[in-house]
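Look at one such:
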Amino acid sequence: MNRKKLDFFFKYLFGGVSLVSVLALGTILLFVLTQGGAPFFLPTAPDIRIVAEGISEITVNDTVYPDHTGFIHIPKNTEKVLLRFAGKDRDRVLAFDVKPKDAPEFTEYDGGTLSNPEKYVYTVTYPGIMPGLSQKVHIIVPEPPYRLTAFLTGLDWRPTYNKVYGILPMIAGTLLVSFGAILLGLPIALLGSLFLAEFMPEKPALIVRSGIEILAGIPSVVYGFFGLMVIVPQVKQMFQAPSGNGLFSASLVLSVMILPTVITIAETSLRAVPSSNREASLSLGASKMQTLWFVVLPHAHSGVIAGIILGISRAVGETMAVILVAGNSSQMPHALTDSVRTLTATIALEMGYAQGRHSEMLFSIGVTLFALILGLNGVILWIRRQTED
């Protein structure tokens, strides 16, 4: 094949693959942003919905729904709703008035029992044909748009019954766990990378470097299981606490997890510093440590900061290890042994059964996490620019 034709083929092949990748990533990001932003601008549904349980045929305002299993939507501007269906011993009648932005006012429910199992949901229960087979009519009122300030600053997370979605304790838990991991792990990682790059002989350093790369590939659930079986009992004994699952345990496990990432990237950057810089510093009478701190490390600061950013991103985005050792209580922590829940842990624990507004709020947590990581990385890059100036 002609070389020009081959270059032309690969040029457009790589361009097409890049375009598809960018479009896929953009679509995913747009979907997440749309789902995460919807709860703050739109209600959960445009109208009231009715769900019939244990009822074979139901009539709603003269419209018959035989064997209906999904939602029955009440059209907008409907003021009164009348339901009829066959009961245990006679036909049942259920009537209520629709009030905008308010609970429905029930005018008749013909011997049924009215309950409010959760906010915005009203259930009328009738005895069924057989014991234990009751007939139920669920009236679901649309949830109004949720306030963004209440979402970000709220202290309570009760998505099922009270429909309260406050994530401030989770934001605080995420930041504190990540800050603790960086505080414990970053000095060790920097010193370890300096030792590997400047002091350890080449052959032993190669062995240690390989071991660190293996640690970077270990699944996070393994670190979490190690923390659950080893670190949590030690923390419980050390602090004489009722439970070792908490802020300190999660920070300690995450500090171990970020070590391979930070050490590998920082050590590679340190080794890339030209030998002439070291030799010039030593020739002027500087000691080995002075050369490292004032010549080598500043010269490699871009790579070191990149390693720190990746370490923070992993600490903030970690899920499985934190779930196993953090305790997962949605409360503001006040001590090192207090149970905490992170943003990622909330998504992982609740996405399996969430639906409706609850599911949308989990997407909103994902958007918040994305913004949080961008903000932290932006602060680090700003500090880097300030130090360069």
